[in-house]
Amino acid sequence: MTKQVDLSGFKHLYPYESHYLDLNGLRYHYLDQGNGEPVVMLHGNPTWSFYYRSLINGLSGDYRTIVPDHIGCGLSDKPSGKVYDYRLRNRVDDLEALLDHLGIDRHITLIVHDWGGMIGMAYALRRPDRIQRLVITNTAGFFTPNDKGIPLRLWLIRHISPFAVPAVLGCNIFAFSALYMATSKTLPTDVKKGLTAPYNSWNNRIATLKFVQDIPVKKSDPSYGLVESVSTNLHRLSHVPKLFLWGEKDFVFTMEFYKEWKRRFPEDEFHSFPGAGHYLLEDVPEKIVPMVKEFLATHPVLSR
Hints:
The protein is of the alpha/beta class. The chain has a domain at 16-148 and 222-298: Rossmann fold (3-Layer(aba) Sandwich), CATH 3.40.50. It is built from 12 helices and 8 strands. The protein has an 8-stranded mixed sheet, sandwiched between helices. Helix 1 (53-59) packs across helix 12 (285-298), helix 2 (88-101) packs across helix 3 and helix 4 crosses helix 5. The chain is globular.
């Protein structure tokens, strides 16, 4: 049974007004804070819009910050796999539907992390005329560099169903282990509650499993073609100003990914943080927010 998400233990960290878009009968939750040029932030797995609170607070005084929760995540509905097809293409379609609904069709800055990177790059290549800037953090727009495959932890979840289902859906191992493996510091109790609150029951953890199962590793995998297309066409975004911010201790999106981005876009701005992990905005928000603000200010919107 789906359980309500209890915000009481961290509401002071997440004081935003909720908005919902109806997507074929499913409630797609998003935040819409501030006014000005649109800055759209896309989370990954197992995070949700809560992860971006420092950037929302830092940017919403000057920009319109829009932060959706992917279906199955955060405060969005969490349907079964029979009701919603948890694939990359659906995520891109959902994002496009939201931005079309909001009438946002130009001057978009995308800030992406983890799976949000592939979703965001796919959308940017689908609608390149709408994209003004990109802020890219610990993510990919291509397959694992050097054909190294995915980390063992993800491989086990993806390939061994007798392990994955009880571990991820029953014990919430993916979201809970990330509290310690994705960050380089001890998180406060209220932050831990905020990061894991949406994944409070077997049914509510479906997306944390489906995201991993959707990682394409062979051509027959459903999302392989779209990832291959994104990787092949990333060069079409060369003209878009980009800021790369990377936690060096990330055990999934390692420095090999950072180097691959740098190889593809050597003219863009890159910064890595030796003491930070995958949850970059939990580890060093005091460094990231000023850098993002400066990047936006030094790459103003060009009328076209």
